[in-house]
Design a protein that fits this description.
With 426 residues, the protein is of the alpha/beta class. The protein is 34% helix and 21% strand. The chain has helices at residues 11-19, 34-48, 63-78, 134-145, 162-172, 183-186, 191-200, 203-209, 224-232, 285-294, 319-325, 338-348, 360-368, 390-402, and strands spanning 23-28, 55-60, 88-90, 95-97, 103-108, 122-126, 150-155, 176-181, 236-237, 247-252, 258-266, 272-281, 299-304, 331-332, 352-355, 371-374, 379-384. The chain has an eight-stranded mixed beta sheet, sandwiched between helices. Helix 4 (134-145) links the parallel strand 6 (122-126) and strand 7 (150-155). It is elongated and about 85 Å long.
Length: 426
């Protein structure tokens, strides 16, 4: 990237510049240098263009924030000593005009409709976590369409929000680039400074600001730190199915709401590989039997909550009996106090590995399962909040409490066709 003579990127900035795509999402720790990187990305693109009406924008959550964060940097890297002659600055409009006709403006996202009607060739979104996603989807994305412009999203996590959604999307989609830079990995900051920051900040604050945790900011999260540890050591990624091991399932059986199913293989050495996850609602047990039947797995044990024995008023039969009639035999999880079940999950998680793609909804639920905070009482409620995270986490809890590994870890040398869908020999 050719731009200002004053810009000397560190190794991580240089790596980013070599890998940027049309749409890029960078999750960076504090003081990484993401503003410097993004301002110089705009400058380099403005200088390299063959258009005489190139337009770039740097968008912060608020107009005043854009001025505070980026205006001085823009003037510095276009000013004296930059090797760029003739740049003009408008303090009133926070605008830089380059000699070739290109223009860079600083804007605020707090009034999205005021941004309508512009066209753009390149745009930087700074601190995306503080913006509504519609600024991108409704306003700026259409402004790039006719010019086929690019976008760079930068920020530090603040929970599950626009930055989180864009980062996950960039990991999946072609023509997008995603990267995450933690302070302990980059060595951009002095280790002694980080150690002092860790002492002075709460664990959640440090994990969010310097280790780029999306879950640390979830107040009251039960497993946020453990899930962050798994991701840090690469235990959330590609976790393929091993045909030589049985697949065990754990269920949270909903009535009017969702049913969640985890699919796990207990590997030799004590590792638990969660290779799949399924969730649905408004359907009967026969639907889930068909889902299991369609998967290429040889099944081991199926674990259900204790209330599966409760008889339904309409039929007089329990769901345990209904499942048995469909060929699905459940092991019933012991009924223990909820707090003990949560502790069982905490003990199991460090031994787990997750397939990031197949298990994504369940992984997100584990990350965000939390107690609700009472602002009035300034304390947490004693029980977990019942929300979208509950079904996946309850199913995982039943596995943590109810699963006992079989004596023989691997299957005998038979093909899948020697078994029916639920692990019984034909």
């Amino acid at each position: 990237m050719t731009g200002s003579a004053l810009y000397a990127p560190h190794c991580w900035q240089a790596e980013i510049e070599a890998r940027l795509a049309r749409f890029s999402v960078l999750v960076c720790h504090r003081r990484f240098g993401k503003t410097t990187l993004s301002v110089n990305r705009l400058i380099a693109a403005a200088l390299a263009t063959e258009r005489d009406d190139w337009r770039g924008a740097y968008i912060a959550p608020y107009y005043k924030q854009a001025k505070t964060v980026a205006w001085d940097a823009l003037k510095r890297y276009l000013g004296p000593g930059s090797g760029i002659e003739g740049a003009r600055f408008s303090e009133g409009e926070l605008r830089a005009d380059l000699p070739n006709g290109a223009r860079i403006r600083l804007l605020g996202a707090n009034d999205p409709d005021s941004l309508r009607g512009v066209y753009l060739d390149g745009v930087v979104f700074d601190e995306v976590a503080q913006m509504p996603l519609r600024v991108w989807t409704e306003v700026i994305r259409p402004a790039l369409a006719d010019r086929k412009g690019w976008a760079l999203f930068i920020g530090t996590p603040q929970g599950r929000n626009a930055l989180h959604d864009l980062y996950r999307r960039a990991q999946r989609e072609k023509h997008w680039f995603a990267a995450l830079y933690r302070a302990t990995d980059t060595n951009v900051l002095d280790p002694d400074e980080l150690a002092q920051a860790r002492r002075e900040m709460s664990a959640e604050e440090y994990e969010q600001e310097f280790e780029c945790s999306f879950t640390a900011a979830v107040r009251g999260a039960y497993f946020g730190g453990l899930m962050a540890d798994l991701e840090r050591r690469g235990a959330i990624g590609a976790t393929p199915h091993d045909p030589g091991l049985p697949v065990h399932t754990a269920w949270d059986l909903g009535m009017s709401d969702a049913t969640a199913i985890w699919f796990c293989q207990a590997a030799p050495g004590g590792e638990f590989r969660f290779i799949d996850y399924y969730e649905c609602q408004g359907v009967g047990l026969d639907h889930y039997v068909k889902i299991l039947d369609a998967k290429p797995y040889v099944y081991g044990r199926h674990i259900a909550p204790h209330d599966i024995r409760v008889r339904e008023l309409g039929t007089g039969k329990s769901r345990l009996e209904t499942a048995a009639g469909l060929g699905l035999r459940f092991d019933v999880c012991p009924n223990i106090p909820l707090v003990d079940g949560i502790n069982a999950v905490r003990l199991l998680l460090p031994k787990c590995r997750f397939d990031a793609s197949a298990c994504e909804p369940g992984i997100e639920a584990l990350r965000h399962y939390r107690r609700e905070f009472s602002e009035r009482m300034n304390t947490f409620h004693p029980l977990p909040l019942h929300d979208w995270t509950s079904h996946a986490t309850d199913a995982f809890r039943y596995f943590s409490v109810g699963f006992r590994p079989p004596r023989q870890g691997r299957l005998p040398q038979r093909t899948v066709n020697d078994f029916n869908p639920f692990g019984r020999e034909k």
